[in-house]
Write a structure and sequence with these properties.
Length: 203
Amino acid sequence: MIGIVDYNMGNLASVINAFEKVGADIAVESDPSKLKNYNKLILPGVGAFGDAMEHLKSNGMDSAIKEYAQSGKPLLGICLGMQLLFESSQEFGESEGLGLIEGRVVAFDKQKFDHKLKVPHMGWNEMFKQNDNPLFIGLDKEFYLYFVHSFHAVCYDRYAIGKTYYGYEFVSAVNKDNIYGIQPHPEKSHENGLKIIENFVKL
């Protein structure tokens, strides 16, 4: 059974639909005490980092996710959910994250852009695989996914399993032990996204 963390940050319908499409046995969970009952956990999210952390802390969900991560069972953060895995974010001031992966979340630096680009980074873009991670089995070295974000992760290269170019190269997918994160929305990325979801289900 796979649990999808519900903390009132974003519409879960598309995430639920995508996991059901690959035949996953899923449940939406808002009770922190029940996270330990799941074999795998999804942390989705849309919105502001600070608000998300406040929602997670309001009922102890932040501590429950950290405890789950220590269990060794697979955990996947999607979009804002990936960003929350890091130590901090500079969105609307400095906010503390879950601290499960060393690194921080920063705004796109428009001064580094080689030509005029809009922020948020929105639409289809390429993910470049950095290694043969099990999350990307069956996908080409370069493949397209759907992005919507204004902030991105900065972390050690050893955690980067996917990178993307938008004005400059940034980390778009990470893995540390049993913890995975992906900045684009696999649930909105058609066949490539469904393949990533299927691979996570099979971990």
